[in-house]
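Budget justification note: compute hours in this period were largely spent on complex prediction jobs such as the one shown. Inputs:
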Amino acid sequence: LAKTTQPISMDSYEGQEVNITCSHNNIATNDYITWYQQFPSQGPRFIIQGYKTKVTNEVASLFIPADRKSSTLSLPRVSLSDTAVYYCLVPTDYKLSFGAGTTVTVRA
Amino acid sequence: DVKVTQSSRYLVKRTGEKVFLECVQDMDHENMFWYRQDPGLGLRLIYFSYDVKMKEKGDIPEGYSVSREKKERFSLILESASTNQTSMYLCASSLSGGALRYNEQFFGPGTRLTVL
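Corresponding output:
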């Protein structure tokens, strides 16, 4: 499993854009980059996945440079309800390895 | 919507008791997983199963066992509960390879187990 490194915590205010960068230096050629979100007292949920360049969905955008050794999750115009832990993962087969994640706190 | 349910949200047990945590998924997923989550440590994989009656150890299997007699149900067993097994336990399921969203896991709400 590729090891990932991401910041422990980030603070933001409502309406701002939040960018979380994750490094995964030993990512393999076939690996995808996946992000999960976890609210308090709930299990994690999948939010976005990508292989290269940029992926966007209704929740977030994921930017992956050409060397794929890092990725950036972008949350546009956050609200208080975006306060959560965000996990960057590089799965191999069906196994996931969650680190401590990044705790994002959005303030009014 | 995929639904993963866990038998209890909160559970309190005594040291030495045998504890069963049940997980059921309704989407015919092949893979099922048990994690524990502790502050500062993230989620750690205890066991997973890729088919009925099949199981593989995760990163921290000591003190736990599992059972998968039916495709939709995956049980985590603490043979003799200890205080260091006090934790949040999360169950998840996923499709096998070839899923459109590669490796997406669907999680249950978790069971907070306290061992006294």
